[in-house]
Amino acid sequence: MRFLLYGAFGWCAEIVWTAVTDSIEARLAKQPLDVRLVGRTYLWMFPIYGLGGLLFEVVHAAIAVQAWPVRGLIYMLGCFAVEYVSGWLIRAVSGACPWDYSHRRWHVQGLIRLDYAPVWFVFGLLLEVVERYVNLFAAAAT
Fold first, then answer.
1. Residue 139 to residue 87: CA distance in whole angstroms
2. 3-class DSSP state of 107
3. How many domains in the chain?
4. What is the pTM of this model?
């Protein structure tokens, strides 16, 4: 149940993120705003988010006593690792990674963006809150 909840949460978060950031980038490029706020994700992402959420729970339990800046840094590094490894595996299996950051300035082999460090830092800390709700919902469903 927790796998499904993390997968669904990840999909929703990514759809909102891409809709908002694409709109901001369009405005910065002086392009017209697409008021539809179209977001996107990939089918590949559901198991990545689901397994990533379960992995997050293990890491969170191990570092819960650490100060929030230390936890955020560990989560950031973990998100980079999961994104890199999953992108590399998908590319090895299918010939292409669904996301391609190679056109961005701070990319690593097109698989991760180092300028996303603050995003992953905050996202990891946000997942601490999400984990509480996931566990409550999963317990209620059983």
1. 32
2. strand
3. 1
4. 0.90
